[in-house]
Design goal:
The structure is a single chain. The chain is an all-alpha fold and 292 residues long. Helices cover 73% and strands 0% of the residues. The chain is built from 14 helices and no strands. α5 packs antiparallel against α13. The radius of gyration is 19 Å and the shape is globular. The two termini are 22 Å apart.
Amino acid sequence: MNGAAMFKMTLSMAIFGSIGFFTGKTGIPAVELVFVRCICATLFLGFCWFITGQHKVEAWKKSEVIQTLICGVFLVLNWVFLFKAFEEMSITVAISIYNLAPIFVLILGSLFLKEKLTFTSLLAIIVCFLGSIFIIGIQNFTSLTDFMGSGFVWALLSALCYALTMLFGKGIKALSAYAMTFVQTSIGILLLLPIVNFDVFYDLSGFNWLYILGTGLIHTGFVYYLFFDSLRKLSTVVISALVFVDPVVAILLDTLILNFRPSILQTIGILLIFGGIIYTLIKPGKNPKMEV
């Protein structure tokens, strides 16, 4: 086992786990924060791509470029929806729902890729669905207004876009990880530029800018570098296990620093969701590759 690669992967997941905490300190809305994140990631990873010399040996295939562009759209939407969810609900609840992405991969794979959905996979989906109801609160499903205002929709959309990013990313083999991410974050800049409200950047404190740049440079650029540098040196099983460092750190920060206290039903819901997800990830040969 590659110890250095495991350390880098663990560190990248731990850092990303604090993104919800950082988001709440930036003082800017989701779209503007993702815009900054795309700029920072493009510059940082573009630099890494250049100094490693990987840009000289890229094999550009039209089909893979198109796939990468589609992935970029869903990746950016995934980030926007996740940050919107952080604005409406606790980090613990948002992250728990966000990590339903592997379950969506199972569902979408069976619908559009004709992948077989077994009884046990269906059971895992049902368990995660029940967990979602418990974690949001049954009362929020009785009123459309309460449901829409709970942030559940944003978190669910972020998980769905995350799953679509993984599905459309399957089969991209010629392009390096740096090239893929550079293209994806570049398309994010172009997509968000027309709708960014630059007025929100006025009158921000140095404290706000510290968290904004931290989210862009550390949580995106540096984390992606660590993630991609270790990804191809680890087995799928190890990657699937280390991915859970992210929600563990997020939940710990939410409970220890932001004083979130889940109810008994929410705790049961969290356990149901992660129980179902862990089951889908540990099955041999069925593990979708995860991206930050």
